[in-house]
């Protein structure tokens, strides 16, 4: 009798849970299939570039900082790859502590130096500090270091949810800012003095810049290159990367927690028996921007994760000298679970290729789910196929 009551009680709870979930899902908005890019006056664009002009050194020093245990992959690697490709600044890849930086959701990298070592080399501070999203917004060493860099005149650039770290350092109080669509409410609740700006992919205000989601690191870095070396240089780098535009236009309404997004997350998470580890072969000289975008995309399906492999445990240097630590020591990986090499494709095309591969393997809804997480404004992806 007890088991029978327990069973019916469990079924009753499950039924209530299913009903509650159904009500919650029905309350979510439908995905938008249209893109409405705002008009941005030319003076606003010029002011944004002007605000990023270097003021300390003829050849600026850029510091990209991360915590060792969990820093967002694309936010951390893409700025380094783009700026070193442009060769308009000296770029230092930093960590708070000695040792490798474990990136999320994939890859492990060996930084150039710790923040203490950087300070010893550059006592006057950096010209620009790039702040990725991190697993903790309140790491005391990061916050103290950011405040000191800002006092020394560095422009601070928060990429994606890195805006929350910048805000926790008190550098966004009373300023205009943006962040990844998923964290807008959290940013505003935790830091009510921040003035959130919608429909802008990049926002600059008095020495601090912020961006929307993960892929906004590309236009942000191109805008920085334009500020340092001029529009022609930025255009050349953009063409080399396959980026069509790098202005601040953005349709914030196209990125939100929709019914299709929630359903895909639930379905893929529940299908845990289908989860697979897909391999990326590391080789010397591979493009770090392409590697970051592809590994990031394939690790956000909720059905797969990207793992790197190489014949040796030794770190493998990318095109611009970033040592990547292989996850597995192996010369082989099952062919049916291997992520195709990016080859000579431009980085933006590598991301398109990854999303197309995700669509073929797991369905179009999962590709859209990943693009939404990356806040990738690709108009060829239509959401809401449920």
Task: Describe the fold and architecture.
- There is one protein chain.
- This protein is an alpha/beta fold.
- It folds into 2 domains: 42-251, Class I glutamine amidotransferase (GATase) domain (Rossmann fold); 259-374, Rossmann fold.
- The chain contains 13 helices and 17 strands.
- The protein has a 7-stranded mixed beta sheet with strand order 6-3-1-7-8-12-11, sandwiched between helices. A 3-stranded mixed beta sheet has the order 2-4-5. Strands 13-14-17 form a 3-stranded parallel beta sheet.
- The relative contact order is 0.14.
For the secondary structure, the number of strands is 17
- General form: globular
* Percentage of residues in helical conformation: 40-55%
Quaternary organization: single chain
Major sheet:
7 strands, mixed
The CATH superfamily label of the largest domain reads Class I glutamine amidotransferase (GATase) domain
Low-confidence segments: 1-16, 379-386
CATH architecture of the largest domain: 3-Layer(aba) Sandwich
What name is given to the CATH topology of the largest domain? Rossmann fold
Beta-strand residue fraction: 15-25%
Q: Widest sheet: strand order?
A: 6-3-1-7-8-12-11
List the helices and strands in order. Answer: HHEEHEEEEHEHEHEHEEEHHHEHEEEEHH
Radius of gyration, rounded? 22 Å
Please, how many domains? 2
Report the end-to-end length measured between terminal Cα atoms.
43 Å
Q: What is the top-level CATH class of the largest domain?
A: Alpha Beta
Structural class: alpha/beta
* Helical run tally: 13
Protein name: DJ-1/PfpI family protein
InterPro entries: Class_I_gatase-like, DJ-1/PfpI, INH-QAR
Pfam families: DJ-1_PfpI
Domain DJ-1/PfpI: 64-226
């Amino acid at each position: 009798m007890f088991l029978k009551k327990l069973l019916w009680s469990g079924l009753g709870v499950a039924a209530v849970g299913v009903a509650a979930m159904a009500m919650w899902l029905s309350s979510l908005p439908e995905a938008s299939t249209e893109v409405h890019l705002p008009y941005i006056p030319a003076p606003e664009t010029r002011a944004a570039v002007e605000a990023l002009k270097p003021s300390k050194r003829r050849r600026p020093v850029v510091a990209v900082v991360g915590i060792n245990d969990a820093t967002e992959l694309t936010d951390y690697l893409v700025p380094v790859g783009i700026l070193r490709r442009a060769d308009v600044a000296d770029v230092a890849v930093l960590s708070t502590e000695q040792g490798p930086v474990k990136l999320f959701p994939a890859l492990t990298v060996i930084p150039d130096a710790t923040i203490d070592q950087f300070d010893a080399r550059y006592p006057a501070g950096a010209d620009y500090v790039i702040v990725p999203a991190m697993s903790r917004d309140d790491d005391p060493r990061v916050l103290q270091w950011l405040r000191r860099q800002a006092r020394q005149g560095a422009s601070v650039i928060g990429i994606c949810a890195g805006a929350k770290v910048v805000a926790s350092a008190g550098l966004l109080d009373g300023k205009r800012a943006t962040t990844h669509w998923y964290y807008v409410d959290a940013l505003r609740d935790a830091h009510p003095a921040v003035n959130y700006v919608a429909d802008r992919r990049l926002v600059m205000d008095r020495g601090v810049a912020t961006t929307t989601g993960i892929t906004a690191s590309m236009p942000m870095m191109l805008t920085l290159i334009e500020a340092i070396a001029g529009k022609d240089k930025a255009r050349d780098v953009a063409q080399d990367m396959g980026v069509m535009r790098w202005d601040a236009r953005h349709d914030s309404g196209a990125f939100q927690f929709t019914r299709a997004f929630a359903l895909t997350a639930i379905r893929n998470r529940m299908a845990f028996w289908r989860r697979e580890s897909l391999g990326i072969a590391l080789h010397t000289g591979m493009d770090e921007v392409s590697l970051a975008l592809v590994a990031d995309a394939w690790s956000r399906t909720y059905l797969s994760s990207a793992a790197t492999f190489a014949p040796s445990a030794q770190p493998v240097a990318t095109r611009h000298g970033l040592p990547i630590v292989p996850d597995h020591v192996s010369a082989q990986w099952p062919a049916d679970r291997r992520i195709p090499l990016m080859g000579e494709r431009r980085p933006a095309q590598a991301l398109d290729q990854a999303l197309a591969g995700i669509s073929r393997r797991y369905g179009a809804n999962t590709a859209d789910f990943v693009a939404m997480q990356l806040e990738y404004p690709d108009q060829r992806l239509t959401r809401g196929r449920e």
